[in-house]
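Show me any protein, keeping tokens residue-aligned.
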Amino acid sequence: MVEMVISFRKLVRDFPSTTYATFSIYRYPAKFIPQIIAYILKNYCKPNMAVFDPFAGYGTVGIVSRLFGCDYELWDLNPMLKVIHDTAVMRPIYVDVNKLIQELKSSNEIFIPKWSNLKYWHPEEFLDILTKVWGYYHSLEDNELKKLLVIPLLKVTRYFSYSDEKIHKLYKSKYAKKKVEDLLKKDWKTLFFTMLFNEIRELLKKIEDYNSLRPKPVKYKIKAGIDTLNTKLDQDVDVLITSPPYLQAQEYIRSTKLELFWLGYSENYIRQLSKKEIPYVNVRKIEVYSKTYEEFRSKIKDDHLLKLYDNYFFAILRAFTSLGENVKSYMFIFVGPAKVRGMPVPIDQIIVEHLKEFGWKHEATLIDRIVSHSMFKVNVNPASGLKENRMETEHLVILRRE
């Protein structure tokens, strides 16, 4: 394998930081930094090419594609994709934020999430305001104001809950319990609307910053709440750029359950989405054309972990094999050597070996060091009792159609 150690942050200077503009308006697990997408588009794509991301997550591939004039199609199981994307690509608008806050305070609309655990995650005192501001949000037509309001509302709503907003997983930590206790002793109503005011102002600035990068008019499709494993592209695309879920990562739906309930999704729908997450969904067995896959499989003795390992590779390799039939030139797949019981698994190498059987040539693997982790962090893995060692690198696999 051709491997090179690089730093996308140093190679690409188009943006002041990884969190500039709308590249970071909401915390989302394991999202692309924009420099990776920019590197690919600058070196391998031309304007008007069609870019596709079947595991789009936050939607960074689309947000950056606009800056290079590339059409794009984004899929993801999590409905948060469309919420974040539609706000991130907004044109600047003028809003009297003081007036908007007053309208939210005086709202007579009520929205109550269809969530049996609502009072477990929000103390009853907060629900009077939360149900009113969300009632106002849900009473709006689908317009620019609604797109602007949703992200600030989600952020402040999570803060005013028993969830620890510093981590992605919906987790009732000691910190979060103390936070709520302290809030209830203060003038929390004033603080709620002050935080909301500041979040709206900050978002307006980020939208201006994004538009200062001069996004181009492009064609695009967003398919949120879609099962990538059982969906086919209805037309060819030039390149595929994606980062599939990490091995054993089940953060994606669980991490945004609170948000999805306030957005109006039902308990049953969210439960069904969770069941479709990789690698916990049962998928049809496929032939894996990789000696490396077999080598590492033989080292796993735990039956439960073995099933997760198989399901993961059956799922992602089946998806790439099937979707790759409609990719005309390149596939760029960003993965890390995730660990099973402390054993790093070379996912990139297994992907390369398998896809070679389907007409894909391995051009290179670019290895980038992880600067910061945004996934749920623990010191000891609760499943194994072993010290948790995080991945130190992530790998961009570049495959060209032969």
Remarks:
- The CA atoms of residues 92 and 207 lie 6 Å apart.
